[in-house]
Write a structure and sequence with these properties.
This protein has 153 residues and is an alpha/beta fold. The protein is built from 3 helices and 8 strands, in the order βββββααβαββ. It has a domain of 102 residues: Rossmann fold, CATH 3.40.50.
Amino acid sequence: MWFVRKDDRALYVDRRRETLERSHADYKRAPIVVDPDILCDFTALPFPDESFAHVVFDPPHVIRKEALGNVTKFYGCLNGDWKEMLRLGFAECFRVLKPEGTLIFKWTETQIPLREILALTPEKPLYGHQSGAKARTHWCAFLKQNETSGGTP
C-alpha cells in the first residue's frame, strides 16, 4: 500500500519479524520479509493517547489456524477470538488518533463481509471505496471527532 516503504513519515508495526519462503507456486520469487519498525500487537499499541494525526489499520482478513499460503504468510491470519481482537484493534487505533485525525481501514471480503467487521466498532466511516478485480477490497475513511467541538467539523 505504501508508495515508499521506508518513508520517514510512516511507522510500520507488526507483531512478527520473520523471513518466510514462498509457497510452491511462487517458489522462485524472493522470500516474504516481515520487518516492522516496531514489534507490537495492534490490540495494545505502545504509544500515548492522541499520538498520530493519521493511522492506517490493515489487519489480517483470513480465518486460519496458521499461515499457509503467500497471502497469509505476508499479512497474517485471524484465529482464536478474532472478533474481540479486531474490536480491540479499532479501539487502539482511535485511542492513539488525535482529535480530527483520520483512520484509513482496509478490509478484503474473502470470508467475512465488511458490515460484520464495521459492527465491531461504535465509530462510523465517513466514506469508502471498493477496489480489486472482484471489488472485494474496501477502503474506509474515519474522522475522529473533536470532543470539545461536539463533533462538528
